[in-house]
Amino acid sequence: MTIGNSRLLLTVSLSLLALISCTQPRETTAQPPVSANPTSSTTPVPSPGRDLTPLFSKIWRVTNPPSQPASGSIFVFLPNGTLLQTSCVETYAIFGWTIDKDQPQVLQVSENGQPAYTAEIVELTNSTLRLQRQLIPSNETQMITLTAVEQEFVCPDLPK
Question: Which range (6-20, 76-90, 110-124, 132-146) has the least confidence?
Fold first, then answer.
């Protein structure tokens, strides 16, 4: 790994750590976030029977991808309605997300203020997150399995 790559990785890692350490998990049942879009009129709606604390308290790495996102991609859900998505081979992306008020197990993810996909939480434990993702532009359905990152991880050097 080159010094430049090491510094970039360190900077991204410290930024992620700062973001995660600044968020506090909700004490009881997590309330759905408001949209990351400040002009949105979406308000939090209680999610009956769904404790989302594990969703907010982990960095999730894709372990069983359909085709996109690639295996090893990471997702970081923040309780304020922000989703950070990145991988070892693509630049990071920050999306907004909300909970569907009619279906509290469904996350609605937006990109540039426009709906990008919905993700139904099929399974959520302290170690596993399974999402059934419905891409809005193509109407394609994908099942994605993510695993909580429990230890340090550094992206491998890419071939040049």
Answer: 6-20
Please name every residue paired with 134 in a beta bridge, in sequence order, or none if there are none: 118, 141
Question: Could you give the C-alpha distances from 114 to 77, 96, 136, 137, in angstroms and in order?
Answer: 18, 9, 10, 10
Over 60: is that where the pLDDT of 7 sits?
no
Q: Within a 10 A sphere around the Cβ of 105, how many other Cβ atoms? A: 16
Could you count the other beta carbons within 10 Å of the beta carbon of residue 158? Answer: 8
Is the CB of residue 145 less than 8 Å from the CB of residue 130? Answer: yes
Asked if 78 and 19 touch (Cβ cutoff 8 Å), the reply is yes
pLDDT tens-digit profile of 99-117? Answer: 988 998 999 999 988 999 9
